[in-house]
Amino acid sequence: MSTTIPNTGNTAQNTTPTKPNKGGLEGIVAASTAISKVDGTAGRLIYRGYDIHDLARSTSFEEVAHLLWFGHLPNKQELASLRSKLAAERSIPDGVMQTIRALPHTTEPMDALRTAVSAWGANVITGKPTIEQTIALTARFPVFLAAFQRLRHGQEPLESRPELGHAANYLYLLRGEEPKEEHVKGLNSYLVLLSDHGMNASTFTSRIVASTESDIASSIVAALGALKGPLHGGAPSKVQDMLMEIGTVENAESWLREAISGGKKLMGFGHRVYKTTDPRAEELREMARVADPTGFVLARRVEELALSLLDELKPGRRLYTNVEYYSAALMNSVGLSGDLFTPTFAVSRCAGWTAHVLEQVSNNRLIRPEAEYTGPMDLHFVPLNER
Ligand SMILES: CC(C)(COP(=O)(O)OP(=O)(O)OC[C@H]1O[C@@H](n2cnc3c(N)ncnc32)[C@H](O)[C@@H]1OP(=O)(O)O)[C@@H](O)C(=O)NCCC(=O)NCCS
């Protein structure tokens, strides 16, 4: 597999461009990072040295955000300080609220979030990305989303509750009632699991924008655009649609066989880097089993059949369950509607995106690859009035 040199920093080690042997930059090392490592063969995900399984079971989103941003897990004092800084930023500037209120109620929440972040940037952001801006923006993601979601359902946005953590406050802002402990726990683990993932498409996008010395809001708006597509973060609601369409265990095999044979991609399966089960899917599977034992029966049977049929009909492609498959079940179980699945992924990934923006600007070099030109050369130019 061909690789190129890391792009960050200013040390050019090789001036001969390397051509990717497959499309989509597969196998190309596009940056150096100390934030997270995806080992696609062993099925491991590491955040700054810590295994995702350890973090998912026993940390809060705020602890993991601290880890991603500052490079170490916080002690109690550092955690309390970060929590209070996040809580202090949970407001919506007037100019941004006007923009959110002006959106049609038919707008998808993911588009509303992207628009709110852009409006926030236009209203308050100047200068280079900073840790203060990172905290201010991450704190606001759930606040923007919940405000829009309530408005589109004819309800007024609520004030945040400073004593609640990130996950609990998000659920409170959406529903206006004390969130159940098991919902907060489930959502918190989800936010931990999804908060960073190596050089995925949206993170790469955020770093490209940061590398031009643009501002943090522009980097994160661009990342939101990249996350939205179904090949990246847009898959969970489509997993839910697929399970609803399949409907029963009896219907599963024929539905799946027909879909794969007809060239459809099964949502929640396959991954560019993991050639074994995604470790986040293992955590989410167990959480989904506990949260909704009845719904889990169909999801698990469809998963087993899909894996066996993918092996039969797509031999050698090494297609396994990815993070999105059980994300839908988990988010459903904590009471989030399908239109909030992808933006809730963004609530989590904002921590990773902003960590990568800060890392990029700390040792920046413009990200500017080359393209292989495949068009014609040396054509004879004919002026307009002679064509
Ligand atoms: C994630 C994903 C985009 C990775 O794509 P990729 O690395 O570009 O893989 P490719 O599209 O090159 O797929 C390689 C082969 O596996 C097949 N394949 C990949 N994912 C598949 C899926 N979910 N269902 C059926 N076949 C799949 C492709 O059709 C292709 O088959 P071919 O060799 O016969 O042409 C892809 O697996 C996918 O679209 N999955 C479904 C969407 C999803 O779950 N997205 C969330 C990702 S976390």
UniProtKB/TrEMBL annotation:
Active site: 271, 324
Chain intervals for the UniProt region annotation (Disordered): 1-24
InterPro entries with a match to the protein in the record: Citrate_synth-like_lrg_a-sub, Citrate_synth-like_sm_a-sub, Citrate_synthase, Citrate_synthase_AS, Citrate_synthase_bac-typ, Citrate_synthase_sf
Comp. bias intervals (Polar residues): 1-19
SUPFAM superfamilies recorded: Citrate synthase (SSF48256)
Record-stated family: Belongs to the citrate synthase family.
Full protein name: Citrate synthase
Natural source organism: Ktedonosporobacter rubrisoli
